[in-house]
Amino acid sequence: MRFDHLFSPFRIKSTEIRNRIFSTGHDTYLPEGGLPSEALIAYQRARARGGAGLIVIQVVGVHETARYTEALLMGTSDECIAPFRRLVDAIHAEGTKVFVQLFHPGRELLGRPDGVVQPAFAPSHSPSERFKVIPRELSVEMIGEILEGFGETARRMAEAGADGVEIVASHGYLPAQFMNPHVNRRSDRYGGSFENRMRFTREAITAVRSRVPDEFIVGMRMSGDEHDEDGLVEEASLAIARALAPDLDYLNLIAGTSATASGAAHIVPSMANSHGYVAPFAQKVKQATGAAVFVAGRINQPQIAEQVLAAGAADMCGMTRAMIADPEMPNKARDGRLDDIRACIGCNQACIGHFQLGLSISCIQHPETGRELSYGQKPRAARRRRIMVVGGGPAGLKAAAVAAERGHDVQLHERAGQTGGQARLAQLLPTRAEFGGIVTNLTAEAERYGVVIRRNSEVTRALLEAERPDEVILATGSRPHLPPFEGDQERLVHAADVLAGRAGTGQRVVVYDWMGDWLGSGIAEKLAAEGAHVRLAVNHHCAAANIQTYIRFETIARLHRLGVEVHPWLRLYGGDGRTAYFIHTPSRQAVEMEDVDTIVVSAPNLQEDGLTHVLDDLGFSYRLIGDALSPRTAEEAVYEGMLAGCAV
Length: 648
Fold this sequence. Notes:
single chain; eight-stranded parallel barrel
């Protein structure tokens, strides 16, 4: 496929961007002390070296009240100029342009400096539903301070060498709060009429323009549809775009708001959303304003970006997670190596999921992401050795790929006819089909580095004695396991068996979800969509409790629409006849569920580590990784595969 649009240069003012691929501003938890760290520089340099045309640096606070997490970059002092210059210079050295986001969250605060909840400020008294933050109305004097902060921070970024700045008016942050009549209830010149509600953002643009050179680029990020009843909708956002476009060099469009569960799910849209789904709104904005338009939102493959650009919907495509998963994606697409691209699967687990846990950014498929200082360059093996990898799930595939990349002779043995392990099962769940991409990507990576993959190959004592590998990496995974259960087990089945088609259910189903992950909620959704009456008994505070926040919101929404009854804080105890017995864990009281045809269980797996006894007996050196070590998620499996591949 040709990418004539994607790899054509794009000019804004006197700045030429080498292609139409950009990385949107996104939190990384890599800053240190509010400033760019060496880890952040290495992270962004990798994406620049990989061929991105433009990198938009994550949000930079413009005022002390903007500290919405402890990992926020801050631009409130001239002391930030030199550290930012090092970051900008590193990106420029790879041929990539740099914009920096200017940010104030208003009421959307997470941070707890010194361990206490900080006061929040917003246009008016308008509590934030999602974070339960009750803001104080901004005084006119403080509005002036924040506007001054926008201008001064822009000046500092210009002095640091950035090519432009981007005012963050997306996702319900402070400028959007001023523009939204449901949030802004002021009666002074910053509230009321449309023009008054636009005043703060206009003055922020003016403050920035007044402090930067004429050729410096000033853009704005905004949401089209905030996906909430009290949020901005596309019609209102289109009016805002028309009003502000003449004062800006570009508009960067996305969807969602931080303020609510329904809106937050669109901040980093999951695989449940269609590819490029914000592009139709971007096209409306472009046609209505004639402005330069950037767009993001599930554009994870160069083919999708090319279609958006060819349709005239936008001038630049944000492909952030695509480059988190594969920093070299632009170069690979440019060179026609499409099969080598490690496509993002929209799982959100280690990118935004890490941020929300207070951890630095990574990717479950590519754990080198965010760890560039440690694993960006893997040393060649001092001596070529014969490595046997047992198990072709995510852990084994990654271990084999990395060991082969470093120069070892690697054979991988998979007893099934296909690689992928439990990831192949996960892709059968509703909205999870793209998760199978992790198998495709890791298998291709292993084969590309010369790993010999032997399918339908059971590793036995005889095979080990015949092959005599120098090192064995044991990645044999785990198997479904039913928990202790008092009473009649005839109606008890494991969720994995139902999903794989090895077991059926009746029409009245109780799903017991000990894990709080994809499987329990996914099987409940699947059975309900097929017409069963489903009660979901969760051994946690809510359904999907261990899934990334935004995807949890979407999952709970789908379960609710399907009529699934969710019962939290329950531990399965037993059953007889058509009754299931539970213990309510906080109160330790009994709970009974009547009229049950089938109890479907999602419980901890049991590690498959039996081969360790053979290896110990033979005296072989081996490493145990992934679920074979301890059942967890694909992220831990792939990470430990990387570690094992680097260690042999």
